[in-house]
């Protein structure tokens, strides 16, 4: 199965707190999304640190294939970010796609949906939950999956599904 990913254009001057990393090898794709909370530089640092830690997991080959282990990965990252004196808080979403199946976890208000070719969208992540975010030392990630990926996988940086926000990343399966 081939996975095609599209993301919105990044602004020329990056002042947003959003961070996205899409990493691939021959058999799997990791999608890591973080949206820093607040307006301080700490939000940018927290989002960047979170995505960098998830990318490090990919490079080290430490990618869980069950939701509970992804929850533990995000809990560990929460403590890493909490101990960083520069970092603030961030929401996070991590998804591993391999062999046509998606599994992962989220904390905060980042959401993921599967939109099948026919039928209604299926929410993978927990409903909108603003706190506690990564960087508080008290984050409570919620895992999801494994779920067969048929159709489009949509991520959003906000929990307000009908707010008019465009998707942050869209992954489409292709034969």
List keywords for this structure.
21% helix, Phosphatase 2c, domain 1, 5-stranded antiparallel β-sheet, 175 residues
Mean pLDDT value: 81
CA radius of gyration: 15 Å
Number of strands: 10
Which blocks of ≥5 consecutive residues have pLDDT under 50? 159-167
Name the strands of the widest sheet in spatial order.
1-10-9-6-7
The domain tally reads: 1
* Straight-line N-to-C gap: 5 Å
Q: Secondary-structure element sequence? A: EEEHHEEEEEEE
**CATH topology description:** Phosphatase 2c, domain 1
Structural class by SSE content: alpha+beta
Quaternary structure annotation: single chain
Shape: globular
- What's the main sheet like? 5 strands, antiparallel
Give the CATH class.
Alpha Beta
Q: Give the name of the CATH superfamily.
A: PPM-type phosphatase domain
CATH architecture: 4-Layer Sandwich
Q: With helices defined by DSSP (H or I, 4 residues minimum), what is the helix count?
A: 2
Helix content: 10-25%
Q: Proportion of β residues? A: 35-45%
Report on this model:
By secondary structure, the chain is α+β, with helices and mostly antiparallel strands. It has one domain: 4-Layer Sandwich (Phosphatase 2c, domain 1), CATH 3.60.40.10. Helices cover 21% and strands 37% of the residues. It contains two helices and ten strands, in the order βββααβββββββ. It has helices spanning 41-60, 67-82, and strands spanning 2-6, 18-24, 28-37, 89-98, 101-107, 111-115, 122-123, 142-148, 152-156, 169-174. The longest helix has 20 residues, at 41-60. It starts with a strand and ends with a strand.
